[in-house]
Write a structure and sequence with these properties.
heterodimer, A: nine-stranded mixed β-sheet, seven-stranded mixed β-sheet, about 40% helix, B: alpha/beta, six-stranded mixed β-sheet, about 35% helix, about 25% strand, disordered N terminus
Chain lengths: ~900, ~230
């Protein structure tokens, strides 16, 4: 019993450590605009940015000025941005060899790392000298993780052949040019795609545009955000160094960098540090965008540069493939050249590109690297300025359903309407063409987010990329167990777990759609500062543009240690008229969300997706986990101790009968009753002294009040049972069992009747053993019920799971110890009568009862006792289970029955 | 140990006689001395018991009488030697076979006439009939046997309600219930007064008249005197 207390005490300490370590995240309080806090709900969705703002800069400053505030980091959804992704290109090797033009280029560009002229290889080409006819089929497919959607499949035909170097007479001399072979028609996809053209290394075929995709931009205060994120916020350093709003005039900055742009820096990216120490990265595409915007007249005197830190890569599953076939004049396939494909995510950056989206004709070699650093080409027209939308994508709406036993609540997301995607831009800025939109089949995506009305008119902004961030690394910084979403730029993936019919499926992570408004959205494409937000939305400093403020209280230690300061800060912020959510002590909880009206078939009928799982967070999880698991552990301990104490008392008292024989002998020796009792008591007190010694040792380790109390109770129970046993030691003379047996009593003619007669004759021991076995069954059932109930007690949060994984084993050990103790005590009680039984077995053996019959006798005895104990075991197990874990009552009853059966097996395995 | 000529091995020729219900050959019984010298209670002991005779094992307490009886009744195994029941060696029998044969052949009455608590004298007598489901069929015979030992009026009494001599007589009746061929009796008169002891001696002697062989261990001179043969155990 003391060991049980010791184990439970250790489990409690471990539980406390786990909860304290894992329940204080990056911030302690989430401040939202008044009325946006979802009062009464403790399970919070990760998307809390509405784009509608609601908190003013003045309120932010008031929060920061409150006592005990460590960090107050604002965050807002700035805008939805529609991007026309690059024109893809198909490059076919058609290298014309070293020539004067190349030499001139290397000299003009001052490229030092090119391969020396003498080492350039002979001309090479995948094309034939005479042009051949080809059919090129471009295809784009996107997947949401469950279904593939073909966005377009477009074919173009024409002839291509090896380029020739040809001299032309020009005024003042001759000019060497790379020209198409005679008779070549080239290959041209529908506008706005360009045609094919020959260069010194490749023939380039312009492919159909990729579809437009949407990204979101969020605004943060870089300094406060870095303070919030700690080491994980290093990616915001360039944004913090960006010039103030006064130094961001787009036309001035554009002119400055256009003037500084030299051919050698044309490639961008790696040369950023060479431009006046500015922290720009990937700047050259924006100079081109500046030029395009200027040509289109979209930039005005008020246009501002928007400093951005953009996300690396994309979770959008978009694969572009090109099939190349050689055909005859009639269009019939002559040969299959091959198919090449590329996924968007391989080199994609929102708002910028480090490389063009190129695919290479099968079989060819890329000779561009002969030019060294001059071989990296950025083709004009690849980078279209983004279209900044003032339709803000708000948070999804959910309807909460029934609560599960573990406290989780099923959610249903509300569809907001279909959004058409897979469109071409209305016109391309470079050529000012209006493409034929009919070449694309529109695709509908369901939006689960409402578009809100935007803010005031703003001049078209010009984005400049200052750096990149890894969305998954930010997500990791937001924590796992103590997950607290940062707001828009740490992705919260959703996984499909059940189909629409409720059948479990292998979990599949859903990918975001082109609209950026589906249920699964990736991290914001870019992060800017609040000056950037004002530039995009045309807001002033007085406007309430802040969606949320994440507050870290200036207090160390665990959530429990800092609870006083956190509560005080929360109360003070609430007085400012804002909604306050204390998130210290929160934990991640995977919410099950039913997703209706997810897809449309050809007829326009909508079908549901099924159920997805997404990480949300549960307020107050730490307190709930600690309380419920502590309760479960305490119940286990009480059951263990209660059962053991009861059985110990029963054993001690049941032993009295055996002791009476000794008492008779002692009485015959002249001992009086007082002396006999003293003698037995002294023996029992030796046991009590041993118990006291163990209690002192355990308490020295435990040092808890519980252990002390239980030690005292155990000692009291033992002493009470001892004194009771001594009091019952009245040295009776040999018993005369009443009147002679009635003549009508059936004769014993079987082991079963023999056993029944013996058990009836020895009612005292029979009762003690039956009660003991019943208590064993009840204890086993109740302990199993509590163990089965542990997952429910732990709740559905990640903290609960972690805590359970840490202390669940100890609790199981506690339960096993309880059952084992009860079993041992029951077996001990059962054996007090063993000497008498063995004497009987000797007699029966001498009368010719064989081993089989004696085994049948033992089984009959144990079976009758088990049958007597079963009702107590079942009623006890079910009764306790109904009190502590109602849903496990049936299994508790089964466990109780099994425990009795186990006792039966052990008893009948006893060998003489 | 000193054996009288009538019971020596030479007389029975060391050959299994199928007419002999019980025969012991070269029985040695040795107990582990608990780290000291082993305790030898019998060594190379031979005994042939004729039907209708009473053989007495005499000697003081601790001389090994009870050990010989339990070996003869197949309740324990000797350290060496063989036990034959009606010429069949117990070495070749399983526990179940020994139990079956014992039930049919041997009636064992231990010292003090141990009975089962909580059961009447009649039920105690009928216990050997339980394995063969002969309880009902043997009930009248049990009553007759209790009458025979003078307890016809006490058959419903339980052991605690019987005196030592009465319990001994019940035990003898119980040993005879299945038509026993050999009665093995351990100290039947040890704790009885002379009157009750003589009653027991009379009952045992009477059983021999029915062709039953009696092997009895005792230090009661009266009983030793009425035996047909005897072995004095040292």
């Amino acid at each position: 019993m003391l060991l049980s207390v010791f184990i439970q005490d250790r489990a409690q300490s471990s539980l406390g450590r786990v909860v304290d370590t894992n329940s204080r995240g990056l911030y302690d309080i989430l401040v939202l605009p008044a009325g946006k806090g979802g009062e009464g709900q403790t399970l919070k969705q990760p998307d809390y940015l509405s784009g509608a703002g609601g908190i003013t800069n003045e309120q932010l400053e008031e929060i920061r000025n409150l006592a005990g505030i460590g960090v107050a980091a604002p965050v807002s959804l700035v805008s939805k941005v529609v991007q026309d992704i690059e024109f893809p290109q198909l490059k076919a090797t058609d290298y014309v060899g070293y020539n004067e033009n190349i030499a001139t280029y290397l000299e003009q560009q001052n490229i030092k790392d090119a391969v020396p002229a003498s080492e350039w290889p002979e001309p090479d080409s995948v094309l034939s000298e005479e042009p051949k006819n080809y059919r090129i089929t471009a295809k784009a497919v996107t997947s949401d993780g469950v279904n593939d959607t073909v966005l377009f499949e477009t074919a173009a035909e024409g002839s291509l052949g090896q380029a020739k170097l040809k001299e032309f007479d020009v005024p003042g001399g001759k000019s060497l040019r790379t020209v198409a072979p005679e008779g070549e028609t080239g290959i041209k996809f529908p506008d706005p795609a360009g045609g094919s053209s020959h260069g010194d290394f490749d023939v380039t075929i312009a492919l159909p545009m990729l579809p437009q995709i949407s990204e979101t931009v969020v605004a943060v205060d870089p300094a406060a955000e870095q303070a919030l994120l700690g080491d994980a916020g290093g990616f915001l350093a360039p944004l913090a160094e960006a010039p103030g709003a006064a130094g961001r005039n787009a036309m001035e900055v554009g002119q400055e960098f256009s003037g500084k742009m030299t051919p050698g820096l044309f490639s961008g990216g790696t040369g950023s540090a060479e431009i006046d120490g500015h922290p720009f990265a990937f700047w050259s595409p924006f100079v081109m965008q500046y030029q395009s915007a200027m040509e289109a007249g979209s930039l005005t005197e008020d246009s501002q540069v928007i400093p951005l830190v953009v996300r690396s890569g994309t979770a959008l599953d978009l694969t572009y493939s090109v099939q190349i076939e050689e055909i005859d004049d009639a269009g019939n396939k002559v040969a299959d050249i091959g198919t090449v494909s590329k996924a968007l995510g391989e080199e994609y950056l929102p708002f910028a590109s480090t490389k063009p989206f190129q695919l290479r004709w099968p079989g060819g070699e890329d000779y561009n690297n002969l030019l060294g650093s001059g071989g990296v080409q950025v083709v004009a027209g690849l980078h279209q300025p983004a279209s900044w939308s003032t339709d803000f994508v708000s948070t999804p709406e959910y309807a909460a359903g029934a609560a599960n036993p573990d406290g989780s609540v099923e959610q249903t997301v509300t569809p907001q309407g279909w959004v058409q995607v897979n469109k071409l831009p209305e016109k391309t800025l470079q050529w000012q063409l209006e493409p034929d939109q009919s070449q694309r089949q529109p695709v509908n995506e369901q939006s689960y987010r409402t578009n809100l009305d935007g803010a005031g008119d703003a001049a078209a902004p010009l984005p400049f990329v200052y750096g990149t961030f890894d969305a998954n690394a930010v997500r990791d910084a937001a924590g796992d167990v103590n997950y607290l979403p940062l707001g828009g730029y740490d992705p919260t993936p959703v996984k499909l777990t059940q189909d629409a019919d409720g059948n479990a499926v292998e979990p599949v992570e859903l990918q975001p759609g082109l609209s950026g408004a589906g249920l699964s959205v990736q991290s914001a494409g870019a992060i800017t500062d609040y000056s950037g937000l004002a530039a995009v939305r045309g807001t002033s400093a007085e406007d309430a543009v802040i969606d949320a403020v994440r507050v870290k209280v200036d207090a160390g230690g665990s959530w429990a240690d800092a609870a006083g300061e956190i509560d005080a800060a929360a109360a003070a912020i609430e007085k400012l008229g804002l909604d306050v959510q204390v998130v210290a002590g929160s934990a991640r909880e995977d919410a099950s969300i039913y997703v209706p009206e997810y897809r449309q078939d050809a007829s326009g009928a909508a079908s549901d997706l099924g159920t997805v799982s997404q990480s949300w967070f549960r307020q107050g999880a730490a307190s709930a986990v600690q309380t419920s698991l502590s309760q479960a552990s305490s119940v286990l301990l009480m059951l263990t101790l209660g059962g053991a104490a009861l059985l110990t008392a029963a054993s001690t008292v049941a032993f009295t009968r055996a002791r009476r024989t000794e008492a008779v002998t002692l009485r015959a020796m002249g001992w009086n009753r007082t002396r006999i009792r003293s003698w037995f008591l002294s023996e029992l007190l030796v046991g009590a002294a041993g118990l006291l010694l163990v209690a002192i040792i355990v308490n020295a380790f435990s040092r808890s009040l519980t252990t002390l109390l239980v030690s005292a109770v155990v000692l009291v129970i033992y002493l009470a049972a001892s004194f009771t046993s001594a009091a019952l030691l009245k040295p009776h003379p040999p018993a005369i069992d009443g009147q002679p047996g009635a003549t009508g009593v059936p004769l014993v003619d079987s082991p079963l009747k023999f056993a029944a007669r013996q058990l009836r004759t020895n009612r005292f021991n029979t009762g003690a053993v039956a009660v003991g076995v019943g208590v064993l069954g009840a204890a086993a059932g109740a302990l199993v019920a509590v163990i089965l109930d542990l997952p429910r007690a732990a709740g559905s949060t990640a903290l609960g799971s972690l805590a359970l994984s840490q202390v669940g084993g100890v609790n199981v050990a506690l339960a096993v110890l309880g059952v084992a103790t009860a079993l041992v005590l029951t077996l001990i009680t059962s054996r007090f009568d063993l000497a008498r039984k063995r004497a009987q077995w000797d007699i029966l053996e001498a009368m010719g009862w064989g081993p089989g019959l004696l085994l049948a006798l033992r089984r009959s005895e144990a079976g009758i006792l088990a049958a007597m104990a079963l009702p107590l075991a079942i009623v006890g197990a079910v009764g306790v289970s109904l009190a502590v874990a109602p849903h496990a009552a049936f299994r508790a009853a089964i466990a109780g029955v099994l425990a009795v059966i186990l006792w039966f097996i052990l008893m009948t395995r006893t060998r003489k | 140990m000193i054996e009288e000529p009538q019971t020596r091995a030479e007389k029975i020729g060391r050959t299994a006689d199928h007419a002999m219900p019980l025969e012991l050959r070269g029985i040695t019984i040795r107990y582990d001395g608990g780290g000291g010298e082993p305790l030898v209670v019998a060594e190379d002991f031979d005994l042939g018991l004729e039907a209708g005779t009473m053989h007495c094992l005499a000697g003081r307490s601790g001389s090994g009488k009870t050990s010989i009886l339990t070996v003869a009744a197949g309740l324990t195994l000797p350290t060496s030697g063989e036990v034959f029941w009606q010429g069949d060696s117990l070495d070749a029998m399983s526990d179940d076979e020994i139990s079956d044969r014992r039930r049919a052949l041997i009636g064992y009455v231990d010292q003090g006439g141990a009975l089962i608590d909580g059961m009447s004298a009649l039920e105690n007598v009928l216990l050997p009939a339980v394995p063969d489901k002969q309880v009902e069929a043997r009930t009248e015979m049990a009553k007759d046997l209790l009458d025979l030992v003078g307890l016809g009026r006490r058959m419903r009494h339980r052991p605690a309600q019987l005196s030592g001599g009465e319990r001994q007589r019940v035990a003898i009746a119980r040993a005879l219930i299945l038509g026993t061929k050999v009665l093995v009796v351990d100290e039947p008169t040890a704790s009885l007064d002379r009157e009750h002891a003589n009653q027991i001696i009379g009952i045992l002697k009477d059983t021999t008249k029915d062709g039953i062989a009696v092997l009895v261990a005792t230090h009661d001179q009266e009983l030793i005197n009425v035996a047909d043969s005897r072995t004095l155990m040292n």
